[in-house]
């Protein structure tokens, strides 16, 4: 541990979690001002009455108080705020498909079958993402080309009667009106895929452009931009334009018929549309070949064919194809038969890809099993590394459901006499069956949960002995904490099971609807209630999402609530799907690293990165980058504090290749005991990070975890801090409700769960330890005085030691 000198100061750099926050809340002050940043990524400090940056509260250590500077990095503006960011919620199915790529199991080194399986899985993910984009375009075509242009605006239709017949008969009017929304949608998607966050400093941007792949094995080493994204984006746009033309020309199975030169032109345009779609599918399938970027390997021709100039030519030809389609459709027919057929063909292809993906993922997960077989069960990947398959299925079914959910209200608004494609009746059946199964599953899960909870409380506190140790002698707090501990543990242990149940319910409904459609079986009368319920579910899905987008655009608070979805999905760079919001981690992490390096130029400064919830992942990746780049004498001046973190129970289990357990052990060893994790048993979203297999024996909290040198093993019994926290290894278990109140400190009553970790006095002690100013096993400090006398009597059935 470095010896603190008279000029020593500590910079506490905080990063918030999901939903965003205010600058004042982040730095725990009544006022805050910006001290750096570009307005999107903001670095703030507490301010005085003249709005000048003010120092933070001093940090009490064993020897003397140390100057502390509190800073906060605000990144919530990257995921919420304004109409543009609010509409990103409509791309949620695309984001889920992109996240599924990062959930793939790791590929063991020097294992050719695992390498080939990983290559095939990534390629299938990109094909599925392309089909998901095509499905959205096809569903918009159902609304704009079929419902609106072909049926509603045909001459003599009793729909939108304010439009005169002469206008309806005007050449190319209906075709133009039907294709315009599709082209606008494709243009918006292309523009979204071009949006990227500008890194504040030029030297950081140049370093990121090098696209280095660190081999350190630290967390987030592979979170980097994909050089294939521009090519992938162009292929999605080309396929979307070709699908729009194909639908207008009759669909993938049968083209429109005409005589003479018109028939020849339609045939040529129809064939060109199919060729463009086929080339797009082939391109996204082959783009994931990592050997393609090497000039001496066989894939170099693909990189050359998809360079900037050929891509522009390809896009221009696709635009010409759409204009040609418009010219060939002087008057639309009464129905557009290609819309229904295209939606069904794309849906069947997506189902085939998901099934194939799930089958290939089984041996890939089995080959990767050796990387986690030595871990205890509670640390192993969810579903044995197979979790990407249900996530991908949910993405596809949500994408199809949202399109149908929009078409149904539009048909109702324009007139009940309009006819939706026949396939939509089976989509409503799908969601009706899924909705009914969801209600039954909810009832079953609620009943089972209630029974288990009743049984657990009937047996007493055996399963939550940690709570009784934390709240020894405080029966009122123990009673409140026990209930919260039970619910929090239940949510953490079974949250991924709920996702599996949702996916299973949707898949059962999809299988039933698909079998009836493929066999062309007329829907039995008993399915009518399910179809009616499906219409309600789809309408509710579409209206709820659109309402959330509207409120997010009008009300900032709603925008932050909508950001829960975006904050989690937008952490991951564009990999499988290019038409997703930009990855904020590619901006936040390098700017955090740069800020820390700026502070470390002062030899008396020590920097502690502090992250709450999702922010804990950001600061962990930033700390890993600092360990890679800093010299040894500077590494000793950085520390890490995580609070309410998912770095043990969620991220290594959902993303075993990106945040594996071994990478966290290496990070803990690199920080040499300067990684402190604040956790509460009442927190349903955060949990322990540094320890596992905890148990209480003879009034002592024991467990296994990371040692200071990065090794793993049994730890010494937990030490009780001066404010009641139990320190086991690197984990600081906080009593919740807090002890106290303490004179001179901010107080928070009741169960805090996932919020306001900085209000606990143990926060300052953890920062001091992370800064290397305090030893964990130092002689116990005298407890802080209470503002009121704590309760010590024990008359509760739960007891207390």
From TrEMBL:
The keyword Metal-binding does not apply. Residues 788-801 have a biased composition (Basic and acidic residues). InterPro entries: AB_hydrolase_fold. SUPFAM superfamilies: alpha/beta-Hydrolases (SSF53474). The chain crosses the membrane at residues 124-149, 169-189, 235-253, 265-287, 313-329, 341-362, 383-404, 424-452, 498-518, 530-553. Residues 774-801 are annotated as: Disordered. The keyword Transmembrane applies. Keywords: Membrane, Transmembrane, Transmembrane helix. It comes from the Bacteria. This is Membrane protein. It comes from Lentzea roselyniae.
């Amino acid at each position: 541990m470095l010896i603190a000198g008279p000029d020593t100061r500590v910079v506490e750099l905080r990063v918030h979690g999901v939903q965003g926050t205010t600058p004042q809340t982040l730095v725990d002050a009544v006022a805050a001002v910006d001290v750096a940043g570009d307005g999107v990524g903001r670095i703030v400090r507490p301010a005085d009455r003249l709005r000048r940056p003010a120092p933070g509260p001093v940090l009490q250590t064993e020897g003397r108080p140390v100057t502390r500077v509190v800073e906060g990095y605000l990144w919530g503006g990257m995921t919420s705020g304004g109409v543009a960011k609010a509409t990103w919620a409509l791309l949620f199915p695309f984001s889920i498909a992109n996240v599924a790529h990062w959930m793939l199991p790791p590929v063991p080194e020097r294992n050719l079958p695992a390498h080939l399986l990983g290559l095939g899985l990534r390629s299938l993910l990109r094909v599925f993402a392309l089909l998901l984009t095509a499905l959205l375009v096809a569903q918009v075509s159902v609304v704009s080309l079929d419902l609106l242009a072909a049926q509603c605006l045909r001459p003599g239709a009793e729909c939108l009667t304010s439009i005169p017949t002469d206008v309806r008969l005007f050449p190319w009017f209906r075709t133009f009106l039907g294709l315009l929304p599709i082209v606008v949608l494709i243009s918006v998607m292309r523009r979204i895929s071009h949006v990227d966050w500008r890194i504040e400093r030029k030297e950081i941007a140049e370093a990121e452009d090098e696209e280095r792949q660190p081999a350190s094995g630290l967390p987030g080493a592979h979170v980097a931009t994909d050089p294939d994204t521009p090519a992938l984006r162009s292929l999605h746009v080309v396929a979307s334009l070709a699908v729009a033309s194909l639908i207008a020309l009759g669909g993938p199975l049968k083209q429109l018929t005409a005589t003479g030169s018109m028939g020849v032109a339609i045939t040529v345009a129809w064939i060109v549309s199919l060729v463009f779609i086929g080339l797009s599918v082939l391109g996204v399938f082959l783009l994931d070949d990592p050997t393609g970027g090497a000039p001496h390997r066989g894939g170099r021709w693909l990189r050359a064919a998809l360079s900037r100039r050929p891509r522009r030519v390809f896009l221009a030809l696709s635009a010409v194809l759409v204009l040609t389609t418009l010219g060939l459709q002087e008057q639309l027919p009464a129905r557009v038969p290609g819309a229904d057929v295209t939606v069904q063909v794309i849906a069947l292809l997506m189902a085939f890809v998901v099934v194939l993906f799930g089958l290939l993922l089984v041996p890939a997960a089995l080959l990767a099993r050796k990387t986690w077989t030595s871990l205890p069960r509670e640390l192993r990947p969810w579903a044995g590394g197979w979790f990407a398959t249900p996530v991908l299925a949910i993405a596809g079914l949500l994408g199809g459901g949202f399109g149908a959910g929009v078409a149904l209200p539009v048909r109702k608004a324009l007139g009940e006499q309009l006819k939706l494609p026949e396939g939509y009746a089976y989509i409503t059946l799908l969601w009706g069956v899924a909705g009914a199964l969801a209600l039954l599953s909810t009832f079953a899960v609620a009943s089972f949960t209630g029974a288990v909870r009743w049984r657990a409380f009937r047996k007493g506190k055996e399963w939550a002995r940690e709570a009784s140790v934390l709240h020894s002698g405080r029966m009122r707090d123990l009673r409140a904490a026990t209930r919260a501990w039970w619910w929090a543990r239940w949510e953490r242990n079974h949250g991924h099971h709920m996702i599996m149940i949702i996916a299973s319910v949707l898949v059962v409904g999809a299988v039933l609807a698909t079998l009836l459609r493929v066999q062309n079986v007329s829907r039995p009368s008993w399915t009518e209630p399910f179809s009616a319920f499906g219409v309600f579910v789809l309408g509710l899905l579409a209206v709820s999402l659109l309402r959330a987008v509207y409120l997010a655009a009008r009300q900032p608070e709603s925008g932050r609530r909508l950001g829960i979805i975006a904050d989690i999905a937008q952490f991951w760079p564009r990999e499988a799907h290019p038409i997703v919001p930009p990855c904020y981690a590619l901006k936040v992490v390098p700017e955090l690293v740069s800020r820390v390096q700026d502070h470390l130029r002062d030899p008396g400064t020590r920097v502690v990165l502090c992250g709450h919830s999702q922010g804990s992942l950001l600061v962990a990746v930033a700390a890993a980058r600092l360990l890679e780049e800093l010299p040894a004498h500077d590494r000793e001046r950085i520390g890490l504090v995580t609070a309410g973190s998912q770095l043990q129970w969620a991220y290594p289990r959902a993303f075993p290749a990106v945040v594996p357990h071994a990478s966290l052990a290496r990070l803990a060893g690199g920080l040499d005991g300067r990684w402190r994790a604040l956790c509460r048993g009442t927190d349903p979203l955060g949990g322990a990070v540094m320890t596992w297999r905890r148990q209480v024996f003879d009034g002592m909290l024991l467990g296994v975890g990371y040692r200071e040198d990065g090794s793993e093993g049994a730890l010494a019994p937990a030490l009780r801090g001066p404010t009641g926290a139990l320190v086991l290894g690197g984990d600081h278990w906080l009593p919740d409700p807090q002890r106290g109140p303490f004179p001179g400190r901010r107080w928070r009553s009741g169960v805090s769960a996932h919020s306001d970790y900085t209000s606990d006095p143990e926060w300052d002690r953890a920062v001091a330890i992370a800064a290397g100013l305090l030893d964990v096993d130092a002689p116990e400090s005298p407890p802080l005085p209470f503002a009121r006398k704590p309760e010590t009597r024990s008359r509760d059935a739960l007891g207390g030691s």
